[in-house]
């Protein structure tokens, strides 16, 4: 696991019920996120950094939700969030809210700069 956050108390139930972008932003602001191999490879190759993921969530909007086929997420939903990277370029992420041993976290499935034209 690549988990970035430190041990903090579990996110409050009110945030769990609110869900969606509000909860995702709270988790990312508190460094409560992780990522998969695809994102790790893109970070290691220099396509973007973790700060770009954070900025996309902070500046973005949810443009799509879909069922989580693996059914290992809170609410069994995946979120597509479109925002900006730290340079202001359009950026896209897909992820889901998951339960960890020490609380909730946001898991980045994929991320990339949006294709032009």
For the CA atoms, what is the radius of gyration? 13 Å
**Residue fraction in strands:** 25-35%
| Gap from first CA to last CA | 36 Å
Shape call:
globular
Strand order of the largest sheet: 1-5-4-3-2
Secondary structure tally, helices: 4
Main sheet properties: 5 strands, mixed
Order of helices and strands: HHEHHEEEE
Structural class: alpha+beta
State the low-pLDDT regions, or none: 5-18
Total beta strands = 5
Helix content: 25-40%
Please give a handful of descriptors for the protein shown:
117 residues; alpha+beta; five-stranded mixed beta sheet; globular
Structure write-up:
There is one protein chain. With 117 residues, the protein is α+β, with helices and mostly antiparallel strands. The protein has 4 helices and 5 strands. Strands 1-5-4-3-2 form a 5-stranded mixed β-sheet. The protein is globular. The termini are far apart.
């Amino acid at each position: 696991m690549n988990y970035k956050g430190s041990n903090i108390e579990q996110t409050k139930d009110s945030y769990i019920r609110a869900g969606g972008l509000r909860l995702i932003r709270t988790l990312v602001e508190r460094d409560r996120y992780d990522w998969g191999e695809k994102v790790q490879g893109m970070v290691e190759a220099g396509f973007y950094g973790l700060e770009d993921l954070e900025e996309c969530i902070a500046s973005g909007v949810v443009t799509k939700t879909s069922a989580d086929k693996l059914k290992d997420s809170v609410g069994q939903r995946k979120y597509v969030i479109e925002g900006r990277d730290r340079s202001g370029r359009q950026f896209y992420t897909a992820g889901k809210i998951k339960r960890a041993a020490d609380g909730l976290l946001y898991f980045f499935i994929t991320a990339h700069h949006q294709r032009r034209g």
